[in-house]
Amino acid sequence: MRKVYVVGVGMTKVGKHTEVSMRDLAAEAISNALDEVGNEKPEAIVVGNMLSSLVEQENLAALIADHAGLRGICGLKVEGACGSGGVAVLTGYLMVASGLYSKVLVVGVEKLLERPTPDTLRGLAYAADADYELIYGVSFAGLNALIMRYYMSKYNVKREELALWSVMMHQNGVKNPYAQLRNEITLETVLNSPVVADPIRLYDACPLSDGAAAIYLTNEDWKKLSDTPVLIAGVSNAVDSPDLSSRFSLDELFASRLSAENALRMAKLSVKDVDVAEIHDAYTITAAVSLESIGFAEKGKAAKLWSEGRFKPGDKPTINPSGGLKSRGHPVGATGVYQVAEVVMQLRGDFPGVLVPAEVGLTQNVGGVGSNVTTVLLKR
Amino acid sequence: MTTIQRIWRIKNILLRLISTRCLECGFIAYPPKASCPKCGSRKVVEEELPKVGEVLTYTVINVPLKGFEEFTPLIIGLIKLGDAKVLAELVDVKPEDVRIGMKVVATLRRSTKTLDGVIPYVLKFKPLTLKLNTTT
C-alpha cells in the first residue's frame, strides 16, 4: 500500500446556512481546500453524507463534483450515519493507498436545518434499528440517555461532573471561527436547560448543524503540493449493532475500542503518544464513553478526570480544541471530515482557534450510538 | 412512522419476543440475528423470551419523534428478560416512579398509526404487582 498524506483542507463555518444550498456549502469547502494545493485538479471525489434526503437530493458526488468544476472525475458517496465523514476519509485513503488514484478529494456535507426539527430528529433516528427500536418512538437522544443513566448508576458518576464537559467545550469553541456556538456557558446553563430525554438536557447535546469540510489526499509523489504534508499513519473502522438490545455491554463502545486499537496498531503508536484528539461528543455521555473506549481514561473515570482539569489545552492529550460537536457543531456527515481537517491544522500549527503543540493527532467519528466508528491517526 | 408491511412481517417476533440463541457459544440476541453476533456461527435457533423482567435503564423522552406526540412524555426502558435485553415502552407508571431494577411484565398495547393509517399493537411493559388473594 502507498503512504497517504493530507495536503489541503477546507471548511465552512458550522451553523444555520438557510441562504446557502448544499451544493454551494460543499463547493465552498472544496474551494478552500483546492486553494491550498494550487488548484491541482483531483482525480476522484468521495462525499460523506447521511441525510441529503432531507433536502430531497441524492446522487451527491455527481451534483457536487459538477458544481465545483470537476465534471468527468470519479465520484461516489458513502454513508455511515453520523460517522459518514469518517468512512468517507477511510474510502479516500483506500483509493490513494491502493494506487488506483493519486489525488482524491474527500468532502463531508450536511444540511440538517432545512426542515422542521421533528422531521430532522426522525431522520437522525434512522441510524437506530427501525424494525425493533424506532418502532417504539425512541429518539437518538433517548438511546443515548439510556446509556447515560446506566453509566451514572454503575459508576456513581454525578450529573454535575458530566455537565462540566459542555462548559469546557464552549471555552474551546468560543475561540474557533468555524464553530457554531461561540459563547461561554456555566455549569448552571447545562443543569437548568430543558430536559430532552431524561437525564439528557439540551446543553448535554450538540446542536443541529449545516456545514461542509474537505480534505485533499495524495501519495508520496504529490505530497510536494504542500509545504507541510500530514501523514495518515493509521485508519480503521468497526461496526456494532444499531440496536442497543443485543449489545455486549452498555457502558463501553465496542466499535470505538476496536477501531482505536486497530488504527493505533497500524500506526505503530500507543494512545500515550497522542498529543491532540478530536472525539465525537454528540452528548456529554458520548464524550465519557468514547474517551474510555479509546483508552484515554479508565472505565467510569473520564468525567472525574475532566472535572480535575484534564484534557484542557496544554494537557496531553488535549481533547477537542475545536470545541467538539458540542460547540463547533455536528453537521453529521461532515463531522468526521471536520475532525481530520482540524487535527491536520493543529499539526501544521495553523488552526485559527485554540492551538496546541502537537506531533501526533487522533480523530474518532461515531455513527449511531457507537455502531459505525472510524479512528484516524495523523502524524506530522 | 412505520408501515403495515413492516408490522405484518415482524409481528411474531414483536408479540412473542422471539430471540436467537447460538448453539455454539450460547449467546442470546434480541432482536434475532441471522448469525451469532458473538462468535459468528450460523447455527442459531429461535427462542421465546420470558415476559417478566427488570428495568436495566430508562429514559423519559420529552421531545418526541414525529408521529409519537400523543405518547409524550414517552418512557423507554431497556429491560432484562432472562439472558437477553429488550428495548420497549414502559406504561401504567408515572415517569418519576420508574426505578432501575423495577420488575415489569409485558402487556399488549396500541402503538402509533402506521403511514397507511393502520393501528398496530405491540408489547409494552408495565410494573409487575403481585396481587395477593385475600379471599378465604
Automatic annotation (TrEMBL), chain A:
GO MF terms, alphabetically ordered: acyltransferase activity, transferring groups other than amino-acyl groups
The keyword Ion transport belongs to this UniProt entry's keyword annotation: no
Highest taxon above the source species: Archaea
TM segment ranges: none
Domain Thiolase C-terminal: 238-380
Keywords carried by this UniProt record: Isoprene biosynthesis, Transferase
Listed GO biological process terms: isoprenoid biosynthetic process
Gene3D superfamilies in the record: 3.40.47.10
Record domain Thiolase N-terminal: where: 4-221
InterPro entries found in the cross-reference section: Thiolase, Thiolase-like, Thiolase_C_2, Thiolase_N
NCBIfam families attached to this UniProt entry: PRK06064.1
Xref: PANTHER family: ACETYL-COA C-ACETYLTRANSFERASE, ACETYL-COA C-ACYLTRANSFERASE
Name of this protein: Acetyl-CoA acetyltransferase
Organism, scientific name: Zestosphaera tikiterensis
UniProtKB/TrEMBL annotation, chain B:
One Pfam family hit: zf-ChsH2
Domain ChsH2 rubredoxin-like zinc ribbon span(s) in chain numbering: 16-44
Alphabetical list of InterPro entries matching this protein: ChsH2_C (IPR002878), ChsH2_Znr (IPR022002), NA-bd_OB-fold (IPR012340), Thioester_dehydratase-like (IPR052513)
Entry superkingdom: Archaea
Sequence ranges assigned to domain ChsH2 C-terminal OB-fold in this UniProt record: 47-108
PANTHER family referenced in this protein's UniProt entry, alphabetically: BLR3430 PROTEIN (PTHR34075:SF5)
Entry protein name: Transcriptional regulator
Taxonomic source organism: Zestosphaera tikiterensis
